[in-house]
Each structure stands twice: as C-alpha cells, then as structure tokens.
Design goal:
Keywords: Signal. This is 17 kDa surface antigen. It comes from Rhizobium subbaraonis. The chain is mostly helical. It has a domain at 36-82. It contains three helices and no strands. The longest helix has 28 residues, at 26-53.
C-alpha cells in the first residue's frame, strides 16, 4: 500500500511540474496588461452603446447612444486598467 501511495505521489509531482509555466519578460507582461486595458475600454463602450440604443427615440436615442458609449468606456477602463 505504501509503495502504491509513493508511486502516485511521485507521478502527481511530475504531472504538476509539467504544468509549470515558463518565466516571461516584463515587456510581455506590460503588453498583455495594455491590451487588456484597451480591450476593456472598447468592450465597455460597445456594451454601453448597445444599452443606450435601447433607450429613447430620434435625437434622444442618439444622445443615449453617445452617453452609453462614454459611460461604458469609462466603466470598462476602470474595471480593466488597475
């Protein structure tokens, strides 16, 4: 029983060590963070514009879409650029 347990533990350790990620440079981390920030801002603006398009009619709807884009962009930026 002990031999079987030791074998399972060793196999699990090897399996987990294979999942270890390689170290990345700081420039890659910075680029990924910048992409996430831009994606959050644009995504928030799109969602805000879609929500704004459901409000009002005529010129009021245009104002609601513009406000939704602005507010959605700010919210998306705040959530993704920390």
């Amino acid at each position: 029983m002990k031999k079987r347990t030791v074998t399972l533990v060793v196999c699990a350790a090897f399996a987990l060590s294979a999942c270890q990620s390689q170290p990345v440079s700081q420039s890659v981390v910075d680029r990924n963070a910048e992409f996430g920030c831009v994606a959050g801002t644009v995504g928030g603006a799109i969602v805000g514009g879609l929500i704004g398009s459901t409000i009002g009619a005529g010129t009021g709807q245009i104002a609601a879409i513009g406000g939704g884009i602005g507010i959605g962009g700010v919210v998306g930026n705040r959530l993704s650029c920390r």
